Amino acid sequence: MTGTESFHRLAAQARAADHDRYLCALFAPSSARAGMFALILFNAEIARVREAVSEPMLGQIRLQWWREAIDEIYQGPGRRHEIAEPLAEAIRVHNLTRNYFDRLINARERDLDEAPPESMAALETYAEESAAPLVSLTLEAVGADADALAKLARHTGIGWALTGLMRALPHHAAQGRKMLLSDSGDGVAVVADVARQHIGKARKLRRGAPRVVKRATLPAVLADAYLRRLAACGHDPYHAGAAIGPLRRQLLLSRAAFFGLP
Questions:
Q1: N or C, which terminus of the chain has less Cβ within 10 Å?
Q2: Which domain CATH number covers 109?
Q3: Rounded to whole angstroms, what are the CA distances from 34 to 17, 44, 49, 81?
Q4: Is the pTM here over 0.70, yes or no?
């Protein structure tokens, strides 16, 4: 398989795994896209562990496999695996920070606990740890200083993750899972308000940032659009109007990417 064929296969896999993040990655520099696709696939793989196993212990085993795989990548050639191999390439090419991967894997252990978060603070912590490190890795992939942009990564990650949890409420409910403090309209509205605060802070931090940083944090733009749509539907995730079609999403991202909108 040629390099071009490998890239297109990676892109197709990322598109199928996480369409929103895939759309955002398309606006990154061409030199960063393969790495971003690999990060999308890694994140999707550990995020689906809870749904892929029949009991928590099996989920722990899968997450431990990834801990060991990441460890091997940083120590040597790494494992032969359809996701681990392109991820190893991304880590080497972009000098990605190990700690961000550890945080993402550790956060996914929370998914194996059937009990809902005990407080809004706990929910925010989960949202941060399950999403902000991925934003930081994306920033590193485009050559930005993730440490200097930690606040931007944090607010973008929390806002995006909380928005995603609300959008996924019907899916989680069908599985008998409860990821929010309350699934009622008022409960969703409370979470939406917190998500909106974080996205507002992220968008302020994006103002004046280099274009490459703005493009690496485009999920903040999509989250803002989803939150507006959700509010217009009375904070009802089951409402058909709460969704945003793919063409609309592409338009929103294009305007933000090319016109530098925060």
A1: N
A2: 1.10.600.10
A3: 14, 15, 23, 16
A4: yes
